[in-house]
Amino acid sequence: MTRIATFNVNGVNGRLPVLLKWLGETSYDVVCLQELKTSDDKFPIEAIRDAGYGAIWHGQKSYNGVAILARGRDPIERRRGLPGDPDDTHSRYLEAEIDNMVVACIYLPNGNPAPGPKFDHKLRWFERLVTYSRSLLDERSVLCGDYNVVPTEIDAVVPARWLGDAVFFPESRKAYAKMLSLGWVDAMRRIYPGKGIYTYWNFSYRGGYDRSSGLRMDHLLVSPSLDENIRDAGVDVETRGWEKPSDHAPAWLDLGR
């Protein structure tokens, strides 16, 4: 069994106690992290190695940033950054080979305020991802990350709250659906086809979090050759209630051999 998780940590150094506690209480073989918010030289590699993981990372000071961790070994880097835009300097895509499997870590642009230039950028980035993902379809591939898209109404506790948000715009959902039409399999929906599953909640001014704001924006897509290997999937919701948590909770899947 291979256990793969994706987690938008919302600042890897500021949330390091949460990350290390979570790594220590779980047994994931591969972990994809997003929104590191740190330059490459400030990435906490020693603490992560002490937790039993090798890592590669693609940082950016104060914004964005992605990393791939592998338990007991070092991921083999294959690509950093998406093709298709030589002017794209954001750290949003990282790809590695781990145990004859391709693992990509994705942090898609949020796109707010929408409509507007940021939303246009989001859609262009999404189209580049869709186009590039075709080259990975015939491999044993998993595309993990914060896609900043809520695919359907079932993926929001209160859909009406998000009608004016880029993550819920029809164009965003259409781009995600286009990926699925290529053959990518949404692992969470394979296990829970009709259940409300959420990976994100707003911060609450009173402490804790607003459960009515739940969204599913963190996704694990697997290539067709891995579809029959999906054994389980879920969300480590309890981390959202820890001290100084991220606004996201880790999502995960189990793949049989």
UniProtKB/TrEMBL annotation:
Its EC number is 3.1.11.2. Its cofactor is Mg(2+). InterPro entries: AP_endonuc_1, Endo/exonu/phosph_ase_sf, Endo/exonuclease/phosphatase, ExoIII-like. Coiled coil: none annotated. It comes from the Bacteria. Keywords: Hydrolase, Magnesium, Metal-binding. GO terms for molecular function: double-stranded DNA 3'-5' DNA exonuclease activity. Residues 5-248 form the Endonuclease/exonuclease/phosphatase domain. Pfam families: Exo_endo_phos (PF03372). SUPFAM superfamilies: DNase I-like. Gene3D superfamilies: Endonuclease/exonuclease/phosphatase (3.60.10.10). Belongs to the DNA repair enzymes AP/ExoA family. This is Exodeoxyribonuclease III. It comes from Mesorhizobium humile.
